[in-house]
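Example record

One chain of 469 residues, shown exactly as stored in the release files.
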Amino acid sequence: MITKINFKAIAYTAFVVGLGMNACTKDRLLQDGEEYSGGEATVFNTSRNAFSFPIPALDNTEELQFATGNSFFNQSWVGSPASTTARDGLGPLFNEPACSSCHFKDGRGRTPKSETELGHGFLMRLSVNGQNTYGGTLDEPTYGGQLNPVGVPGVEGEGNVKITYEEISGTFADGTPYTLRKPSYEIVNLGYGVMNTDAMYSPRVANHICGLGLLDAIKDVDILANVDEEDADGDGISGRANYVYDVVSGTQAIGRFGWKANQPNVRQQSASAFRGDMGITSSLFPEQPCTSPQADCNNAPNGNNDNGYELDDYALDRVELYVSTLAVPGRRNWDDREVLRGKALFLKANCQSCHIQKFVTGTHPKISGLSNQTIYPYTDLLLHDMGEGLSDNRPDYLATGREWRTPPLWGIGLIETVNGHTEFLHDGRARNLTEAILWHGGEAENSKQQFLEYTEEERQRLILFLESL
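Predicted structure tokens for this chain:
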């Protein structure tokens, strides 16, 4: 269920009180237990390992499975043939040799500093006009659905991405100047000839992965309760669910994961990443992502087991459990006066219309410690039109080129601690949280305009609130 709160009334009261915020107003802005972002699946730790702890409720068997999943997640896979069948199968084409190469310390990736730098969680999605059999994107015929810059020995990589930035200047209402960097992308060093003239591509930076099992446990009905495709309430926000293909059930399901909400659950998200990022097949995706023109890729040795794929279900089960049970870091300074003032500014700007604060999870089918938890993820898991400035002009199932899933905000204040940078948004263009807000458009245009009207002190307070999440 979703607890309905009159956020606009709370924000209004806080601003009437202003700098003289009293105890009564402070109490109204505080929500009981909100420091436990993941409910009982919360861990209070602010070190570089803040995203890497298991939820406290794991039993002894699950703790062992978590440790095994952690090993599979962090290991560097090798090409075939190899001395161990449990660790081979990398490639023939791939982006990274390990899950942790993109999600270092289970955190967020960043953009490359040059077209040949690897290992930091950046990739390029590819497609052409049309849809596949299941309603998803149609792969580019020569390079597939994702550009893989690296190949195993004897297989040439597909190419590299060159990023250039244009600086865009602007000014806050109080006269303070700011700049944004607008990226442009060029795919260079193509290994297999020119791309289709209709090719579309979209950059991605890997997000931090704590709390995914809790998001998986939110009931469909609670996600759909926030859908407002026709903007019936007139607030300018019209989120909608993406419906995507669930490989296991063979049906359409609500998309929850990925920047365009194009994956329905943690297991499929994990198996898709193994195949797309590392070229490792599984029971969900048993076919290598080699296209017809890529003869060396198609003829390269593989690490298939007796079932005809490389990652057996034992390993996939444990990776799924590991990713699902990474605990959410608890809030810092959630009851601090300045943080609460920042929260009031967040509410006044109506940010919570998409970044919904509170859910109660349903019954998780596999892990009891994720069930019936009151959580504060600050997302609705829905698609929203974010404006032309953030558009990739590439549809994905029901998502248009301008639509993106609302990302959870929990843990966002620890990205710099864990990963050593403050790059945000789907392609890492924002160099800090302020720039991330300023790129908002479309349904979020009014919220951005409110932020532009805030004074420097107010902007700092809002950022302080975000950094407490």
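Notes: The chain has one domain: 7-468.
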